[in-house]
Amino acid sequence: MTKIRENLQTIGVKLKQYLSQYQRNEESVQLLAVSKRHPSDKIREAYNVGQHAFGENYVQELLDKNQQLDDLEIEWHFIGPLQSNKAKKITEVASWVHAVDRLKIAQRLSDYRPVDMPPLSICLQVNISGEKSKSGVRPEELLSLAKDIVQLPKIRLRGLMVIPAPEDDFNKQREVFARVSKLKVDLETQLQQGGVNIKLDTLSMGMSNDIEAAIAEGATIVRVGTAIFGQRET
Ligand SMILES: *Cc1c(COP(=O)(O)O)cnc(C)c1O
Questions:
Q1: Could you tell me if residue 234 is inside a domain?
Q2: Is residue 166 one of the residues assigned to a domain?
Q3: Does any ligand 1 atom lie closer than 6 A to the CB of residue 226?
């Protein structure tokens, strides 16, 4: 058995175990394989053992890999920071964009999404650790941004995404994810109170180092790179 296959199997077992341990439905988490800076061959290998959703951080890298893997039905998730001048290409390839934090980006994504494709699923990236990080929406700005974004025709707002500051302590990891989880519930409630009937079904949180804490707090997409593909080349 190859290493990638073995790793995917190990993670699959762990995910099941955590879901049961934290009393969650068996199918309530999607594994997103983060393949940035790993070659297409490795993606193909993972695909061939049943992993079909992949996350990439860089526009050109995603486009190149999409071309090299044209014969596969990959579900691409763009998880990196996005500049609005690169939004068009992404809309032609990706099913999801995880790190939206400005209306202008969302508008571009909606404008460029090809008419014959379904609306693009997006998450709003939350800036949970305050001034330490430049990207992400501040919690107090979520509602007003979400209200504008749900008006866009070719965008489907699915939920929130977070990249917390690195932290090794399990309870502290959990505490941060719990805050994001609550933000999502509150946002949904506030939108509904404002007459926007929407179900936010996604919490994109948890990476190789904090999967368990993320699952414990309701993650529905975990974004895992290193634990599947090994260390990235620098
Ligand atoms: C690289 C990356 C990941 C994967 O991180 P690992 O620690 O390798 O699992 C997840 N999310 C985002 C946004 C990333 O950039």
A1: no
A2: yes
A3: yes
